[in-house]
Amino acid sequence: MTTSAIAVSGLRKAFGDKTVLDGIDLDVPAGTVFSLLGPNGAGKTTTVNILTTLMKADGGTARVAGHDVATDAKAVRAAIGVTGQFAAVDELLTGQENLQLMVDLSQVPVGRGVVTDLLEQFELVESARKPVSTYSGGMKRKLDLAMTLVGNPRIIFLDEPTTGLDPRSRRTMWAIVRDLVADGVTIFLTTQYLDEADQLADQIAVLNQGRLVAQGTPDELKRQIPGTHVRLRFSTVAELDAAARVLTDSTRDDEHWPCGFLEMVGRSRCGPCWTGSMSTRSMPTSSPFTHRTLMTFSSP
Ligand SMILES: Nc1ncnc2c1ncn2[C@@H]1O[C@H](COP(=O)(O)OP(=O)(O)OP(=O)(O)O)[C@@H](O)[C@H]1O
Ligand SMILES: [Mg+2]
């Protein structure tokens, strides 16, 4: 039997006459990654704040690590780690001192050498003795997450952990999340990036106008996308010709040469004969699922 790390039923929250959460139900099995996806103002941070006891809900129930967030906040806090949307680090202290502060404040025993280990894991050794005010935004995000891991929480909330990070730092963050999950940790992750949810999550829920408008595995949600738009860009005419022969329902565009395009609307039919990298960006459209994908392929 799988146990729920997070179980939410009928969660409601309004600010004045603005309803932000209009009856949210979700269930996160222990040891999995759950991604709450939604545009600016959808209510992602509000959800995180309620589940981490930073804010009270107006209605519904939420249990985290088996404890009710409304009536047993202390037990919830002892079980979780939170990396908020904006880095909560002390700018006047060094990275090392920030981490040591978390060790000193920790309610649970922390192993010796944890500060050194975390500085290494997050590639912050070189700047460990510099004030955080001199860190870049990405370094502060990494330090913030490292501070969350002190005390080895079994449920971790990450509110947009990679917003503003460069591609390399995003990948570092993703690798860290995967390592945590491999270790049995449950991750509740909010993001605006479909590709991030796709990369990391076992389950995705899409929050839009106060409601979860879709929930499922990444594959289940992708199958629901009616209008996926895939653009393939090739560096040589030969590759474009070869791809056009395979992808017969695509539209060929030679006009933008030297970057020849194939446009495909509908489900991607890219087979294993092509390899490449894919990046996906959410588009601000009426449908929360619509997205534009740019694939850069190279022939095997
Ligand atoms: N303390 C507050 N008082 C009044 N309104 C608030 C408060 N906190 C959030 N809101 C409103 O609730 C809505 C949801 O905000 P929230 O921060 O949860 O969105 P979000 O999905 O995290 O957005 P983003 O991607 O921009 O971080 C917004 O319209 C916001 O203005
Ligand atoms: Mg937010």
From TrEMBL:
Major site of localization recorded for this protein: membrane
Domain ABC transporter: 6-234
Keywords, ordered alphabetically: Antibiotic resistance, ATP-binding, Cell membrane, Membrane, Nucleotide-binding, Translocase, Transport
Gene Ontology biological process terms from the UniProt entry: response to antibiotic
Membrane topology: Peripheral membrane protein
SMART domains per UniProt: AAA (SM00382)
GO terms for cellular component: plasma membrane
Gene Ontology molecular-function annotations: ATP binding; ATP hydrolysis activity
Protein name: ABC-2 type transport system ATP-binding protein
